[in-house]
Amino acid sequence: MLARPCSEFKYNERIVSLNQRISRRPSIIMTTAPFDSLFPMICQSSQTQRWSGWALIVAGLLCLPSLGAGEPRPVTYTSQLQTVLKQYDHKFQWFHPRAVAVPSDRPNDPMMVMTLQKHLMTSDYFSGLHVMTRRSLSAAWTGPVLPPQLDWQPQPDGVTVSVADVTPGWHAPTGKVIALGCQVRYNAKGEQLNDVRRAHQTVYAILDPHAESWTRWQVLTLPPDEQFDFARNACAQWLVQPDGHLLVPLYIARNAQEPFSVTVAECRFDGTKLTYIRHGNVLRLNVVRGLNEPSLIFFKQRYFLTLRNDVRGYVSVSNDGLQFDEPQPWCFDDGVELGSYNTQQHWLTHGDGLFLIYTRRGANNDHIVRNRAPLFMAQVDPTTLRVMRRTEKTIVPERGAELGNFGANAVSATESWVTVSEGMFMKDSVQRGAEGATFIARILWDQP
After folding, report:
1. Is the pLDDT at 51 greater than 70, yes or no?
2. Which domains does the chain have, with CATH numbers?
3. Per-residue pLDDT tens for 188-232?
4. At CB < 8 A and 24+ separation, what contacts does 303-308 make?
5. Model pTM score
């Protein structure tokens, strides 16, 4: 079949939105020349090549330098790296460490709870959820321990039901910790199953820090629409609103084989049960596996959502936490694409600063799977949604292991944490210096 000329293409709303966005940029001269005269090599290519070419052009145009108002003042900090655990014996390694601060009567000195799991050396095969506790920031850690309520649930048919990708958070109105993650079903080989409808759903467990007791995992009941048949909150930062309601970002699909989309669900929590209320618009991107592992943050009266995609990371913004703008690729403020791909990103905020934590290409790290180390942190301009390149710092160094599965959380008015374990998945990880360490990068803010 002959390739169609570009004049036959019907450009969707994404391109129309892009054109509108470009036309508002004073640094770009618009042209009425036909596309085939501007980009003849793309127009004369095969259909697959054309779409790849247009995708690159669209991403490049979205990353053109913005000429808006002056960028924010950099918010300064120092970072300290602490090693909590070391474990690697070809049987398991600790993975997905994420922490939550439980307020105490000591100013800026909360109790810390960290959840983590054993990675059982088969892809995405995890133990039950373990817990570590630190009574104060100067106290020693206890654990990891595996509460029976958070352990595997063997089924009569030989299937094991478990959880993965958990993020704990503090719910101040009820004085409880909520741990949100995704339910998984394993066979005897540790392979994730899609053997029943709604095998992949969002689950939660609750910690009463005073009684030091956990509940069992419960499934968050979502509407019966087939778009929620696969619905995960996984490796995702979520928010508690002033009224106590939760905003829970989800990546959803009819099944695990089609591209994922993202939406944010508003939920009510009464201290024992999490109840779905409604969800916002659905963000879609039909590129490889779509959008997944969204993380949400609130900053200066707006909500910011960072999104994983196999090709590049994306960012979106909302005024109400439910209706989000069209995602745009993550870029530096000089117009160069950030280079974070097929890996989660997370947020921190402090005072006048909005920060992104991420991995990326271009850091002498091509020997690391998906360039997932080191971990960088940089300030984001909330107006342009650009990463301020001059603020980029390495907060966890690359030692031959991947660092792509991590958490980020506020601790006090003067401190935040980024938590991560070294993924020992390269043959030369040990030779390059990795130890299977679980790290806390303490972010110590210069100003409260």
Report:
1. no
2. 6-62 (no CATH), 77-445 (2.120.10.10)
3. 999 999 999 999 999 999 999 999 999 999 999 999 999 999 999
4. 303/239, 303/247, 304/347, 304/354, 304/380, 304/382, 304/385, 305/249, 305/262, 305/264, 306/330, 306/345, 306/346, 306/347, 306/356, 307/262, 307/283, 308/342, 308/343, 308/344, 308/345
5. 0.86
